[in-house]
Amino acid sequence: METVSNRAGTPSTATLSLRALHKSFGTFPVLNGIDLHVQRSEMVFVLGPSGSGKSTMLRCCNRLEEPDSGAIWVEGDLLTGPGVDLNKMRQRIGMVFQSFNLYPHLTALGNVTLALRRVLKMPRAEAEAEAMAALKSVGLSDRARHTPAQLSGGQQQRVAIARALALKPTVMLFDEPTSALDPELVGDVLDVMREVKEQGMTMLVVSHEMQFAREAADRVVFMDGGSIIEQGPPDRFFAAPEQERTRAFLSRMRG
Amino acid sequence: MDVFLDQFLNPEVLAKYAPLILKGAGVTVVLSLLVVLAGICLGALLACLRAYRINLVSFLIVIYADVFRALPPLVLILLVFFGLPNIGIVLSSFTVLFIVLTLVLAAFAEEIVWAGITSIPNGQWEAARSTGLGFTQALAYVVLPQAVRMVIPPLTNRAIAITKMTALGMVIGVPDILGQATTAQSFSANASPLTLAAVAYVVLFLPFVIASRWLEARFARPGS
Amino acid sequence: MDAILQQFFNIEIMAKAMPLVLKGLGMTLLICAVVIPLGALGGLAAALGSVSHNRLIRWSAIAFVDLFRALPPLVLLIFIYAGLPFAGIRLSPFAAVTLGFFLNNSAYFAEIFRAGLLSVPVGQTEAARSTGMTATQTLIWVTLPQAVRNVLPDLLSNVVEIVKLTSLASVVSLGEMLHAAGLVRSLTYNASPLVLAGGIYLLLLWPLIRLISHFERRIAS
Ligand SMILES: Nc1ncnc2c1ncn2[C@@H]1O[C@H](COP(=O)(O)OP(=O)(O)OP(=O)(O)O)[C@@H](O)[C@H]1O
Ligand SMILES: [Mg+2]
């Protein structure tokens, strides 16, 4: 069996490393010591029942949620702890949300350029060129001047991916990127994610798209009750899960 | 500090004029209650009238509401108080203040209640009418009860803002809190009556301001 | 009927009052130009305070807002203009009006901005922070524009209220429009100058009121 520790080695060799991550809301423990190491260009897929702490773990990875204890590294640089320039680190960690969270008062282009201009301080022309390239990579260069309200859900999520991509992050986090979409729009977003992966992006994805996990993921992680129960390559994970809880979950998902 | 106490919280002055200001508070409270009651009733009535969509009537109501929302109440007060006697109509300053503030509150109330009525989806009207309710019945039993929910917070805010304007009565000599206090202040050559007046207003209105905050949180506004 | 025309719509008297009333209008606009931006800034600061995570800041801001929403602006104005001199603080009418209206307007603007800020979903802040924007950048570029847009009708309504409020400055003898009209009225014993002033207020504010109704209808639908 591949376990986390013997696979990943020291944190600094992995692109994203989580060590002994704990988090409680009040007295209610949500993460009970998560160890996870995502290698360069690896796509790690996180599965688990509702309330198992998947979103919380992901949100700890850019400190939208503050972990109680434990450590997180990005390319060997410590993200947690005092004295970290959080805004600088967050540029290196792209995040895609379930509900897109596009800025409704800006166009698609404006959504992508905002951080380029205000965070990276790019001049307008350069920022727009970068943004157009990012929009092109998600197949939406012709929608640059549309506002979010004028876009379908799938298009909105692709703009959100472009917004994160444009900052050229080293790792991208996806929190159920397709669960707010109509079924016929899911494919477009998954196609974009597949392309992002092919460009060599390191990705940590929470999603219930099993078929996509089977095809595209390098590794599948199963979480329950705030702990990682089991993980492995998708072939083995889906065909021969080792843990009882994993099997129960998978059979429930298959209905 | 002593000078300050002497000028702003002078016990003798306070004791001497407290009864007058209390009397003024009585005037303020009575006037406020009358204005709120009459203003909201008139405004709601106009809004219901507008629901019948009789062109001329609606037009007149809109003009009325616009004018009384655009004109400063103090302009209206002076106009009525100094203008009407010239054409032979003499009203007490209390009556003038009551009429003007009622008309102003009614104008705002009409707009607020109308917004409430129009916010109810058409399906509610259709459902009510399809069960045989008449227009007035549909309005009274189905639409208005639903509109009340979104109407209460803005109406409360507006009613507070306009009852606070009873203080404008001072300008035409209404013996309300502020009227009494400014008189007392000039007699006593001391600011304590003004302090007392400010405290009296805060004591009177703060509970309503806090209540409106609570109402607003309770009936969270749609659309924003 | 003639008497009404004579007493309220006397063209001759209006013409005579016109120069003074227009000068008053200048002062009215000047007060607005000073007081509206000041009040908006004060209100924004108080609104930010009232949604702060720091309990002390939050409650101070809310206490400030509620206090000045409970106090009638005229009471505040007279307290500043006629009361403060007893403490040796003697303000000019303009300064008194500016201070009084600043406190009053800030409270009202604060409530509106607060509602606006609360109307922006947290996801917006999270998205902005996840791209490395600072809290201040997020406020300026993401939260505030949406907050303002969501409460635009209320903000405009408040501007209308402030323009109307400037008429109170006449009580402390600041020569704004109502003061000028009142002066001519007391000289001529004729209400026409007040009607003239009212007409100008209407001209000034009616388009704004229509615009607000338009926005409100657009937001509702
Ligand atoms: N801000 C919060 N305050 C209190 N409890 C929270 C908060 N956020 C999450 N929780 C709780 O933490 C637990 C884990 O939540 P989390 O959102 O991480 O689950 P999840 O695995 O992403 O579930 P889902 O599949 O439903 O998205 C849940 O029980 C949730 O109720
Ligand atoms: Mg989740």
TrEMBL record, chain A:
Gene3D superfamilies: P-loop containing nucleotide triphosphate hydrolases. It is found in: Cell membrane. This is Amino acid ABC transporter ATP-binding protein. PANTHER family: AMINO ACID IMPORT ATP-BINDING PROTEIN, GLUTAMATE_ASPARTATE IMPORT ATP-BINDING PROTEIN GLTL. It comes from Aliishimia ponticola. Its main location: membrane. GO terms for molecular function: ABC-type amino acid transporter activity; ATP binding; ATP hydrolysis activity. Residues 16-250 form the ABC transporter domain. Belongs to the ABC transporter superfamily. One of its GO terms (cellular component) is plasma membrane.
TrEMBL record, chain B:
Residues 25-215 form the ABC transmembrane type-1 domain. It is a multi-pass membrane protein. Keywords: Amino-acid transport, Cell membrane, Membrane, Transmembrane, Transmembrane helix, Transport. It is found in: Cell inner membrane; Cell membrane. InterPro entries: AA_ABC_transptr_permease_3TM, ArtM/GltK/GlnP/TcyL/YhdX-like, MetI-like, MetI-like_sf. The keyword Transmembrane applies. GO terms for biological process: amino acid transport. SUPFAM superfamilies: MetI-like. GO terms for cellular component: ATP-binding cassette (ABC) transporter complex. PANTHER family: L-CYSTINE TRANSPORT SYSTEM PERMEASE PROTEIN TCYL, MEMBRANE COMPONENT OF AMINO ACID ABC TRANSPORTER. This is Amino acid ABC transporter permease. It comes from Aliishimia ponticola.
From TrEMBL, chain C:
Coiled coil: none annotated. GO terms for cellular component: ATP-binding cassette (ABC) transporter complex. The chain crosses the membrane at residues 20-47, 59-84, 91-110, 187-209. It is found in: Cell inner membrane; Cell membrane. Its main location: membrane. The keyword Transmembrane applies. GO terms for biological process: amino acid transport. InterPro entries: AA_ABC_transptr_permease_3TM (IPR010065), ArtM/GltK/GlnP/TcyL/YhdX-like (IPR043429), MetI-like (IPR000515), MetI-like_sf (IPR035906). The keyword Transmembrane applies. It holds the Pfam family BPD_transp_1. One of its GO terms (molecular function) is transmembrane transporter activity. It is a multi-pass membrane protein. Belongs to the binding-protein-dependent transport system permease family. HisMQ subfamily. This is Amino acid ABC transporter permease.
